[in-house]
Amino acid sequence: MSISNKHLKTLEDESIYVFREAAAQFENPAILFSGGKDSIILVHLARKAFFPAKFPFPLVHIDTGHNFSETIQYRDQLVEKLDARLIVGSVQQSIDEGKAVEETGPGASRNWLQTVTLLDTIKKYKIDAAIGGGRRDEEKARAKERFFSHRDSFGQWDPKNQRPELWDIFNGRKNPGEHFRIFPISNWTELDVWQYLKKENIELPSLYFTHKRKVLDRDGVTLAYTNYIELHPNEKVYEKTVRFRTVGDATCTGTVDSAANNIDDIIAEIAASRVTERGNRSDDKRTESAMEDRKLQGYF
Amino acid sequence: MEILRFTTAGSVDDGKSTLIGRLLFDSKLIFEDQLEDIQNATVKRGEEGINLALLTDGLRAEREQNITIDVAYRYFATPKRKFIIADTPGHEQYTRNMVTGASTSDLAIILVDARKGILTQSKRHASISSLLQIPHIVVCINKMDLVDYSADRFDEIVDDFEIFAEKLEVDDITYIPISALKGDNIVNKSEKMPWYKGSTLLYHLENVNIISDKNLVDFRFPVQYVIRPHQDFRGFAGRIASGSVKKGERVRVLPSGLKSTIESIVTIDGELEEAKAGDSVVISITDNIDISRGDMIVREKNLPTVNNRQDAFLCWMNEAPLEKGKKYILRHTTKTVNVYVKEIVYRLNINELHREKTDELHLNDIGRVELETSQPLFFDPYINNRGTGSFILIDPATNVTLGAGMIKSAVAEIEDKLDIPRKKSPNTVWEGWNIARAVREKRNAHRAAVIWFTGLSGAGKTTIGRQLEQRLFAMGLQTTLLDGDQMRHGLCSDLGFTEYDRKENIRRISETARLMFEYGNIVICTFISPFANDRGFARTLIEPGRFFEVFINCNIETLKERDPKGLYEKALKGEIKNFTGISSPYEVPENPELIIDSTLTSPDLLVDIVMKKLVEAGIVKG
User: Fold this and answer.
1) B471/B529 same-domain check
2) I need a surface site. Which of A105, B67, B276, B506 has the fewest CB within 10 A?
3) Is B529 a catalytic site residue?
4) ipTM of the complex
C-alpha cells in the first residue's frame, strides 16, 4: 500500500507540540511506559520534541508482575540506550502492603489493580503530569478525552465536567494534589501508529511479530498461556502461530492469528482487519462501559 | 495523505449520529466488535435493526439519556484522506461544545431536517461556524426520503439558508441532499435524486481544497520552551503558528523588539532550510537575546499588533457569569497574563445575529467585549490568523477554562455605533515603549522589579523601604521609592480616605510604579494598601515574577506602643475615622512573595531578608 506520509508529519508536529506544553506547564511530568507500541512511540516523539537536549521526563512503568519477559528486556535496553530515568511502580508491592486485593479464580487479572499502584506512584514521586499513550480511536470513553485531562486529588476523572479544550491552547492549571493526564497521540489511529513505526524505522518487542506460543481460548479471546493464568476445568492449552496486537498485562492480552513477521505485513493486516485492537482485550469485555468505569477511578 | 478535521452539528433528531454511523458503515470502517457492541446495545434498548447512532454516543450516561453531551472525536480514513470528526451536540445549552469542536475544524457539516427546514438551531450552527472562521460549510439536507426526494423542497431550503448566510463571513457553502438512514448521497450517489448533479458527501470531504485555508504569509513563532543542552547552544522550541521562515532571514523578537537573524532550524532528522505553518521545530538565532516562553519571533518587517487592549468576541462557558472588572487569567499562544474585561459592548443573539445590550454574559452567551491585559499581547485579527487571534480565559480561583475569545482588533481602532460610555480619553493610542525595558535592563545590568511593602501603620514600611533603597542605590542600581505620605502630598493631594479615594490613590500609585518599572527601575512602594483587590490590581500591571508583595507583620499591641506619629492614640479616641487596623479593616495578604515580622526584629535584619529574596529571584546579583 503506497500512501504519502503527510498525515504522519501533521500528527508528529501536533504530538511534539503537546510534549513541549507538558514540559513547560508542569514541574514534574513523567511518561507512562508500558513497553507497548504506543508508549514506544511516545518515547520516540519525546526525543524529537527536545532534541538536541534530552527529554526532561522519567519513564514510569506500572509493573503488574504479570509481564512478558520480552517487554521487560525491551524496556531495560531502551532505558540504557537513552540514559533515561526509570521509575517502577509494583502492583505486587501494593498487594503486599494491603492497598490492593488480588482477584482470585480463573478470570483473575491484575488489570484493575494497576490503578492503585499508578496513583500511589504518582503521589510518591510527586508527578504532576502523567503522559500516556492513550488514543481516542481505541475505545468510546477515550473518544472524549482531552489532550490535557484533569484529575482531582483522588486521581479521578470527571467526564461530565471536563474543561473545554479550544484550538491548541491547553489549560494545565491545577491545585496542589491534583494532577493531569496528558495524551500526545490522542489523534492517532492504530494504522497511523504502525505506519509511523515503519516510517521511522522504530524497533519493537518481538511479541508484535508472528511466533509460536502456548495459548488457550477464553470468552472468545485467545490468551497466551503463562504461569499467571489459572485454567478453567474445560480449557485446553495448545500451541499456535500468533502475534500480539497490543501488549499489556500477560493475563488479559489476547493474541491474533497471524503470520505477519514484519511491519508491512502488519499494516496490510490491520488495513483489512474487521476488529478493533481492543476487541481482543478481555479487560474491556467485562461490561459495556468497562473502560469508562476504570477511567473514572484513575486508570490510564 | 492530508488530514481533514470537521465538525458535525445538529441534534439527535436531525440524524447526526446516524449520519456519522452511515459514513463509517458505508466506507466499511465500523469494526466487527463495535458492530457487535451496537447490536447488543440496540437489543437492550428494545429496538430493532442496528442503531447507527449508538456508535458515536460514547459515555454511558449519554447513551441512557439518548443525547451526546460533550465533544467526542471519531476517526476514519479513505485512501485519499484521514478524517477527524469532532462530534458535538446541537442543543441550545451546548453552544460551548460546538465552539470547542469548531475551534479546530476545517469544515462544518450542518444538518437540516428536510421536513422542518431551517430552524433556529441551524442558524446557530452556521453563526458559530462563521464566528469561529471554519473555512468550509456543508449544509446536508437530511431525511430527503421523507419528502419524496423532492427537488423543489431542496431548492426552497437552499434559498432560505442563502438569505441567512448573507450575514455570515463564510466563503464556501455547499448544499447536499441526503438520507443518512437510507444512505443516499453519503458515500454512494443516490438513484432517487437524479436531479442532483453535485458530489456525494464523502467525495466532497475527500476533495475540498484546504491547503489555501492556512495563513502562509505572516510568520509567527510563539516560543514554547527554551532548549539548552549545553553552553554552546540555545534553541527556541515551538510550532509555527502561521507563515514560513528560512535560514538566514532577519527576524524580530517580541516584546523586546530586538532584531536578529535565523541561524538554524533544528530537528532530530537534520537541519532545515525552511519551515512553515504547523511545523514543530527548534530555532536558533545569531544574537544572544534573552527569550523565554510567551515571547514571539516574527519577521523583521511583518509585525503583529502589539497592544494591551483588545476588542474581541467572547464565548462564555461557565455557570458563573462573566464579571466586568474581575481579574481573570488569559492565555494567548504560549503567553499567560492577567486580564480585566472592561466593557461588554453587546451580546450577540447567535440565532439572528442581532446585537443586544447587556451587562452580563452567561453560560453559552457570545458577546463583544473590550479587554485590558496586564501586558501587551502580540496578536493578529482572528479572521486573518486563528493561531494568534484566539485566546482562552481561566478562573484564577478554580483554574477552570471560562471562555474562548476571538480578537477583532486593538480597542483604539474601533468606533462602535452602540451608545456606551467609553474611557474618558478615547482618542489616545497606546504606542508602545520608546526604549524597551529589556534594553534598559541590559544597560543597567540588573532586572527591574516592584517591591510592594504592605502592612499596618507603624509596622516599618517606610523605615525598611528607605534602608532597602539606600542599599540598592549604593550598589549602583536604578531605584525609585514611592512612599505613602509623599504621594499624598503631591500627585494624590486631592484625595481623602473614603473607599473610592483610597482605591484611586492606589490606582495612581500602581500606574506610577508601572511607569518607573518599565523604565528599568527597582521600584519600592511603601503603602498600607489594606485591600487585597487593590494590591492585586498593582500586581496585574507588572510582568509576572517581577512583583514582590512583602507583608510586614507586627503585633498590634507593639504598634500601639510604638505609635511614632501618635496616630493610634488619635484613632483610639475616635479622632481619626477609617484608620486601618482600628476602625477600618486590613486584609492580610494570602499569598505574598515574602512575609517579615518587625515585632522583635530590627529593620537592618529585615532588609537583609528582602535582599536575599531579590538575589534568589535573580533581580540583583548576590
Assistant:
1) yes
2) A105
3) yes
4) 0.88
Tell me, yes or no, if B486 comes closer than 8 A to chain A by beta carbon: no
Q: How far from A18 is each of A171, A254, B6, CA to CA, in Å?
A: 12, 31, 21
Cβ within 8 Å of residue A31, ≥6 positions away: A39, A42, A43, A46, A55, A57, A58, A59, A60, A131
* Contact at CB, A166 and B390, closer than 8 angstroms: yes
Q: Do B70 and A6 touch (CB under 8 A)?
A: no
Catalogue the E-assigned strands of B166-304: 172-177, 220-222, 225-230, 233-239, 244-246, 250-254, 258-266, 274-276, 280-285, 296-299
- Tell me the sheet residues that pair with B225: B237
d(CA B455, CA B460): 8
Inside any domain, residue A1: no
What's the longest Cα–Cα distance across chain A?
57
For residue B276, tell me if it sits in a domain. Answer: yes
Q: Does one domain contain both B284 and B345?
A: no
Do B196 and B237 lie in a common domain? no
Task: Tell me which residue of A183, A184, A182 sits closest to A28, measured CA to CA.
Answer: A182
CATH of the domain at A92: 3.40.50.620
* B544: preceding bond cis by omega (within 30 degrees): no
Contact B26, B78 (CB under 8 A): no
Nearest CA to B86 out of A186, A41, A158, A180 is that of: A186
Q: Please give the residue range of the domain that contains residue A170.
A: 6-188+289-297
Determine contact: B390 vs chain A, CB below 8 A: yes
The one-letter code for the residue type at B432 is G
Would you list the DSSP string of B596-621? EETTTS-HHHHHHHHHHHHHHTTSS-
Where would I find the H helices in B132-217?
151-165, 201-207
Half-sphere exposure of A200 (CA within 13 A, CB side): 23
Min CA distance, A5 vs chain B (Å)? 6
Phi, psi of B324 (to 5 degrees): -65, 135
Same domain assignment for residues A216 and A159: no
Say if residue B591 is exposed, middle or buried (CB neighbours under 10 Å; 0-12, 13-18, 19+). Answer: exposed
Assess if residue B420 is contained within a domain.
no
Q: Which three cell numbers stand for residue A6?
A: 503527510
- Residue of B86, B196, B57, B100 whose CA lies nearest to B140: B196
Distance between alpha carbon B600 and the CA centroid of its chain, in Å? Answer: 46
Interface list for A 82-141 with B (CB within 8 A): 136-137, 140-141
* Structural domain range at position B461: 444-616
Sign of the dihedral defined by the CA atoms of residues A187, A190, A192, A193, in that order: positive
**Does residue B622 fall inside a structural domain?**
no
Shared domain check, B164 and B27: yes
Please report residues of A whose CB lies closer than 8 A to that of B237: 20, 49-50
Tens of pLDDT, residues B444-501: 989 999 999 999 988 999 999 999 999 999 999 999 999 888 888 888 888 887 777 7
Contact (Cβ atoms closer than 8 angstroms) between residue B406 and residue B382: yes
Q: Are A91 and A110 in contact (CB under 8 A)?
A: yes
Last residue of a domain, one of B213, B244, B276: B213
- Which CATH number belongs to the domain containing residue B309 in this structure? 2.40.30.10
pLDDT digits (tens), chain A, 300 positions: 344 688 999 999 999 999 999 999 999 999 999 888 999 999 999 999 999 999 999 999 988 888 888 889 999 999 999 999 999 988 888 888 877 777 777 666 777 778 888 888 999 999 999 999 999 888 767 777 899 999 988 878 877 778 889 999 999 999 888 999 999 999 998 889 999 999 999 988 888 888 898 888 888 788 888 878 888 888 888 998 888 887 777 777 788 888 888 888 888 887 776 555 655 555 555 554 566 666 666 666
